Amino acid sequence: MDKHTPAFSTYSVSLYFDSASAAQLRHAAERIALATNNDYMTQHSVPPHITLGMFHAAENDLPLLKKVFADFADKAAVSNITFSFAGVNSFCDKVIFLYPAEKAAAYFKELNSILHEMFLPHFKAGGNRNYLPCNWYPHVALAVKLNHTQFKKGFEEALRLFEDEALAENTMTIASLGLALCKPYTELLMN
Question: Is residue 86 part of a domain?
Fold first, then answer.
């Protein structure tokens, strides 16, 4: 990269849970980490969240990124959203996640669409394009970067947790919306 090429970083816009909901989700992630011997989520202190989108931005575009985020936060008016989970699922046998019930999923998909309408005119989609509205599936990851054996053990544990610990019956609450630098994870703005 030459000195005239701007350095891009990846930023995420995510929904964060209240402390009680986050504690339940962290407990589930810890149980799966014990079952799989894969502690990526717990070791990296990944807070329970639902990522709505990821975007690349140059450092000199950070003021615009923050402004667009603030505009989105005003429009989305995210606060005390309660919902329940419908079940446990996976991506490519490498990620185990909980997915929200249908009504909440539709609401989160609407937020994802609005977010991208506001951000894509200014910033490129970040990460792996799975957050674009046509590809996105609302979820809360409990375990990531699993190999085949870890996935099998982890998925069995996740199903047990979902049934035995009544994660399906518990209501979760989204308390805030945040903008963060992805690596290293650094919260920039919380609303």
Answer: yes
